[in-house]
Amino acid sequence: MTESAAPERRAYYFDSYTRMFTARIVERLTFDKRPAVVLDKTYFYPSSGGQPFDKGTINGSQVVDVVVRPADGAIVHVLAGEVSGEEARGEVDWARRFDHMQQHTGQHILSQAFVREANAETVSFHLGADSVTIDLAASSLSAEALERAEELANRVVMENVPVKAWFPSEDELAKIALRKTPEGLEPGALRVVAIGDFDFNACGGTHVACTGEIGTIKIIKTETFRRNVSGQLRVEFRCGRRALDDYRQKNAIVNQLAADFTCGFWEVDQAVARLRAEAQTNRRELKTARDQLLDYEAASLAASASSLDGLRVIRKAWPERDAAELRALAGKLAAQANSVALLGTAGEKAHLVLARAEGLAPDMNVILKSALAALGSGRGGGSPSLAQGGGAAANLDQVESALSQAEKELLSRL
Fold first, then answer.
1. Per-residue confidence at 367, pLDDT binned at 50, 70, 90?
2. 116 with 179: CB under 8 angstroms?
3. How many CB atoms lie within 10 A of CB 35?
4. CA 375 to CA 253: how far, in whole Å?
5. Where in the chain is the domain with CATH 3.10.310.40?
6. How high is the pLDDT of residue 26?
């Protein structure tokens, strides 16, 4: 272990509650094009083990990052500006630090709860500004297992169990049943965090002194994902202030929904179910009505179309129209014998749809290429009986000219 990496220089190992301290600046350097300093001791936690770095100030300059230098393990404090003098007056952002203490200690408890209630080990942990997650070595867990783990975790919180962090001797360490033992550490360099006799884990993070300070531990959601070959379960949760903020937000939403539905909050799910059923019915009825309107429109367009030697060509352009609706209309027109539909819509994304009845010879892909060339831009394709394309901006005159070219190409191939 190098001198700069010695545990005594990392004062946060032994005291997570100090907010203001003085230290000696032992090195000045530039890190990521910013001024930085190394102190003879520090209470600023560096990004490590899934926990973000502490913010705050040193001699009035904002601490914008805290990192461990790989070469010697020194804690490098990256600053917003230069600082003068040999003495450093540090002040840790307490709100951020205590939030991290709550979330990290809560993670230890929840991870052990999952081991006890579901035999699911924690693979990784991430503490972000909004999201706190653990990844479990389990592809899925039942709702009952999740609830049991959450219940056990909160029971440990409410019992206000003491939390201890220290560097045990080799003999002492041999008697401790760690949840997970890291490899490659020198004797005496392993820091253990014990939550009563509930959980023992190797960890270098900052933690509360008693579990009651964590507040509520609440699981928010879970999702399964695959990593390498096996599946893992990501569990998102909140502790303390974050759990309270999450509850307030969701409670406000539920109360507003209850007011909108003029029902009690306990009836909101039933009101939503009724609304969903009504929406599904309305969508079905609307689809039926739209299909009927398209049938009427197709009949009207077909009746007014020109005919050449028994071939009926329906050519029509609109200023703005949904492309999916155009395809449906073209399909209805092409379903009539000896009919060809040449339809288009203008706008920011002009679109052409060309369709013909079965049994007719012209390949609509060939006709479409000619029309798109006349339009001046766009891509497309399809089958010999139905092709579509476009995508570039075009006005109504340009679309009508493209459809006129399509009709000329069509008639030339009959």
1. very high
2. no
3. 16
4. 50
5. 304-412
6. 96
Q: How many CB atoms lie under 10 A from the CB of residue 116?
A: 14
Kindly give the pairing relationship between strand 311-318 and strand 339-345.
parallel
Angle between the 94-118 and 240-261 helix axes, to the nearest 10 degrees? 80
CATH topology of domain 97-248: Threonyl-tRNA Synthetase; Chain A, domain 2 (3.30.980)
Name the nearest CA neighbour of 65 among 49, 82, 85, 45: 45
Quick one: residue 160, left, alpha or beta (phi over 0 = left, psi -120 to 50 = alpha)? left
Q: β-pairing, 34-39 with 20-31?
A: antiparallel
| pLDDT over 70 at 134, yes or no | yes
DSSP H or E run through 161: none
Please provide the CATH number assigned to the domain covering 304-412: 3.10.310.40
Rounded distance between C-alpha atoms, residue 133 and residue 324, angstroms: 42
State the pTM of this model: 0.77
Instruction: Give the fold, CATH level 3, of 3-91.
Output: Elongation Factor Tu (Ef-tu); domain 3 (2.40.30)
Beta strands 379-382 and 351-356, pairing class:
unpaired
Q: In what order do the strands lie in the sheet with 199-202?
A: 163-166, 192-195, 199-202
Do 5 and 191 form a contact (C-beta atoms < 8 A)?
Answer: no
Looking at this protein, which amino acid is placed at residue 110? L
For residue 187, the model assigns a pLDDT of 59
What is residue 365's three-state secondary structure?
helix
Beta bridge partners of 201: 193
Helix (H, G, I), strand (E, B) or coil at 122: strand
Residues found in the chain: 414
Location of each CATH 3.30.980.10 domain in the chain = 97-248
Contact by Cβ (8 Å): 156, 252: no
